[in-house]
Amino acid sequence: MASTYNAPLVPSAAPAYSTVLCSTPEQMQRALAIRHKVFCEEQGYDPAIEVDELDALCDHLLLTKKNEDGTEEDVGTLRWYPPKGKVGRVAVHKQFRGTGAGSTLCLALEEHVRERRGKAADVMRGKTSFDLVAHSQKIAEVFYHRLGWETVGEDFLEEGQPHCKVVKTIQLKPEPAIAVLNGSKPPTRSYSVRWCETQSDIDRCIQIRIAVFVDEQGFSMEDELDEKDPASDHFLMTTVGADGKEEDAGTIRWWPKPGLAAGKIGRVCVLPKYRGGGTGKLLMTSIEEHVRNRRGKAGEASKGKESVTAVVHSQMHAEGFYAKAGYVREGDKFMEDGAFHCKLVKQIQLVPETA
Ligand SMILES: CC(C)(COP(=O)(O)OP(=O)(O)OC[C@H]1O[C@@H](n2cnc3c(N)ncnc32)[C@H](O)[C@@H]1OP(=O)(O)O)[C@@H](O)C(=O)NCCC(=O)NCCS
In this protein, which residues make up the domain named N-acetyltransferase (predicted)? Predict the structure, then answer.
């Protein structure tokens, strides 16, 4: 599949072009129609693979031209895949090539990313700059260079054509303040997290979950205690009170996805009085350590694998918390257990397996 800009090398000054982020099904259809014309009808790619599963995860830009009689024509499109920063499916209708359409699209993408719009907002969180990446056909390399992109690494073959990787670093606009649910406060005591190896520890985790998700947040008991519990690793976070006694503070669980190099992090919660100051973060780093070191059910499930994908279905208010822990949003929000959630993922590299 051609994932590169495909226009003549010398763009001229752009006419009355404007670019929008596709935000309605109608705009998306127009963008897909341009791709179909260019990639399928003109270049002979199979329509069955031209539109793929990444489309739902990308930001799509649509370039249009305003004519003097007031009518509007669709000119070109590109898509951008946030987790990899990768630009692809750049397509400009034949009659507009060589008119600056491709540069206008690429510059619009730069602005889109710089301004942290669309899905870009999620992957830019916490960052001050970001690398845009494209696999350019060798004949289009000069086009990218003119726009300030640089070639990195060796040339390679893609779809039977010589390609190179081109990159441009975008300095991002300062980040707007993100909503912090519980405000950070400095840790006033120390916490520890243990993998539950007894039923009584697991019962303590479940009590914390009921206090947070059922009593505090109003989820149903049926949704809370599900069939994944027996197949999961559970973790209990504790602290020591002023009287020297152990107090339960939070919990988290890992459910290995059967047959996949992936697992789901869930039921992440800290009791209200212990929130802030990094307690939630400690739960996240502890579970990642457990998985990385192939312990428990996570270890059983990751036999023969070098890495696993940690998946979170986050309530919308907690998205920023996971983003801070390095999780990257995939796709649109969706309903789960009667509340909006979004999916975030992080790759966990495992320690080498011992013989
Ligand atoms: C979500 C939860 C586990 C986070 O734990 P916490 O102790 O409050 O958070 P931490 O102190 O560990 O925060 C770690 C970082 O994430 C940030 N953060 C925490 N909650 C956040 C939120 N809702 N939105 C954005 N950022 C958040 C913190 O500011 C902190 O940033 P820093 O490292 O730059 O200081 C906790 O608030 C909780 O139990 N909430 C109720 C249960 C819940 O909704 N769980 C999520 C289910 S999907």
Answer: 18-173, 192-351
